[in-house]
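May I ask you to review the protein record following this short note?
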Amino acid sequence: MTSAAPPPPAPPAPDRTPGGSGSGGTGDPWATRGLALGGTLMVVYGVFAVLQGITAIADDEVYTSFGEYVFEFDLTAWGWIHLIVGVLAVAAGLGLFTGAAWARVVGAVVVGLALIANFMWLPYQPFWSIIMIVTGLFVLWSVFNYRSTRAA
């Protein structure tokens, strides 16, 4: 009596990780992993911006300007700007973790606004503003270079 041959091995399951070889994604691990890092950076930036905004609203004597600049604004107004941009950045950053298209669009707009705000914030916090501008540029790069792995 002959025994039945064992069934052939099942084909490997497709790789469903973003940017994986079988996912149909971008194939660029920097962009796909960068989106997760971009979301994390947006949440962290948002929390810092909220705290920075609350500080400027509560006591506008905390920050001082380094020189005369064309774009001088009231620090309480800057506090409200940072508070609003920070809340939007946290929301969009959390949305990036889901891979939602709306989160990428809102995230790009919020980061664009944050880049402008940080440029205008240079007289008050020059080193922090430069760090946040570079971080924002990376977030924009990751948002624009990400390709969805979901089937169309």
Observations:
- The helical segments are 29-58, 75-96, 101-120, 126-145.
